[in-house]
């Protein structure tokens, strides 16, 4: 356990940031799962609607520094490719 006051503060701040990042990642994962579920169900309209919301969540996570921009780009690309392949 930390003895120095600043180290104790850093622990608290890191826990707060980790909780925030975890919540944001969870939102992204949920959005991606909704897109995947729509793809499996074969509902193209729903998949496209879910894709838009998933891209929004991924972009928000990137803006907040949770995901690297290339990681976000890769996720968006793969999701879009999957939805477009539903023809």
From TrEMBL:
<keyword id="KW-0687">Ribonucleoprotein</keyword>
<dbReference type="GO" id="GO:0003735">
    <property type="term" value="F:structural constituent of ribosome"/>
</dbReference>
<dbReference type="GO" id="GO:0006412">
    <property type="term" value="P:translation"/>
</dbReference>
<dbReference type="InterPro" id="IPR036510">
    <property type="entry name" value="Ribosomal_bS20_sf"/>
</dbReference>
<dbReference type="InterPro" id="IPR002583">
    <property type="entry name" value="Ribosomal_bS20"/>
</dbReference>
<keyword id="KW-0694">RNA-binding</keyword>
<dbReference type="GO" id="GO:0015935">
    <property type="term" value="C:small ribosomal subunit"/>
</dbReference>
<dbReference type="GO" id="GO:0070181">
    <property type="term" value="F:small ribosomal subunit rRNA binding"/>
</dbReference>
<protein>
    <recommendedName>
        <fullName>Small ribosomal subunit protein bS20</fullName>
    </recommendedName>
</protein>
<keyword id="KW-0689">Ribosomal protein</keyword>
<comment type="function">
    <text>Binds directly to 16S ribosomal RNA.</text>
</comment>
<dbReference type="Pfam" id="PF01649">
    <property type="entry name" value="Ribosomal_S20p"/>
</dbReference>
<comment type="similarity">
    <text>Belongs to the bacterial ribosomal protein bS20 family.</text>
</comment>
<keyword id="KW-0699">rRNA-binding</keyword>
């Amino acid at each position: 356990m930390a003895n120095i006051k600043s180290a104790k503060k850093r622990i608290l701040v890191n826990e707060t940031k980790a909780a925030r990042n975890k919540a944001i990642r969870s939102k992204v994962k949920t959005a991606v799962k909704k897109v995947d579920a729509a793809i499996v169900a074969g509902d193209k309209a729903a998949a496209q609607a879910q894709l838009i919301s998933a891209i929004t969540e991924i972009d928000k996570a990137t803006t907040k520094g949770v995901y690297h921009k290339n990681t976000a780009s890769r996720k968006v690309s793969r999701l879009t490719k999957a939805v477009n392949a539903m023809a």
